[in-house]
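# step 3/5: fold
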Amino acid sequence: MGALAVGRVRVALLLAVALVLLLAGTACGERSEPTGALVESYPVTVQGGGDKPTVVRAAPKRIVPVGAGPTAVLEGLGLGKRIVKVNDTLVGLPLVGAIRHAKPDLIVASSDTDPLDLARARSATGAGVYVEDSNSVDDVVQAIGEIGLLTGKPVDARRMTARIEAQRQAVAKEVTGAPLVTAFVDTGGFSTVSSRSLLGNLLELSHGASVAGTSPEQGPFPLSRLVQVDPDVYLATAGSGRTLQQLRQHAALRKVKAVRTGRFTILPADATVAGPGVGRALEQVARILHPDASG
């Protein structure tokens, strides 16, 4: 059995132990925390979204998050005292320098972080590097579990993912039998997202579909194509600057069903953050697409 396979078996076993502890604590009506061997069980190896597995040989004491998702997950796990924040809007050598100055023993990065920057940061610090995969709710749930294992917080991670799973099941029940709703997502300047992105997955789980498809081209979505696909709902991300009034002032776009009927919504700022709030974001998207669905 190869090293990666062994690592996956190890992760599965640790998650199983964490689940047993969580259920035991729930049955007793008390908060259950990992103790003894579970907390001390290092080294830990997980795959994550990077090209190499992440190996942590001891409980990390200084953790640098890069991106909103990793920050939200670490804070949600109660690791605030171990988080060392850097200016993660930096790129290239300035980002590497900021991470090196923070002296981390673990770096948790979003999937859109430049792999070269992470490789340089790993070389400069000797820290473990974990990349959060975040193209779907399943990815986020997996990442939370793996981050929990790396940081000695598997039971807290299990609580977090159980809450997300409960929210997903509730949404699935609400939208059962509801009609499919098509949507266009405007991230600014008519740029959009793939149906294979996290937001695309939220639409799918809400019995909706992104009209942009799986591989929209970079840059503005062709307005002639937008008129042609005629989405039921128009969603704008926070910070996109888009308004319904702007759309109605556009001669061609005012004919689009979503614009004509006023089914326009600005998504909450955390709707695209791959963190513990992803279940709440799913609920919000489902309510936007199916306002008449019974809860």
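# step 4/5: annotate
Strands lie at 44-46, 54-56, 63-66, 106-110, 128-132, 181-186, 208-210, 233-236, 264-266.
# step 5/5: archive (pending)
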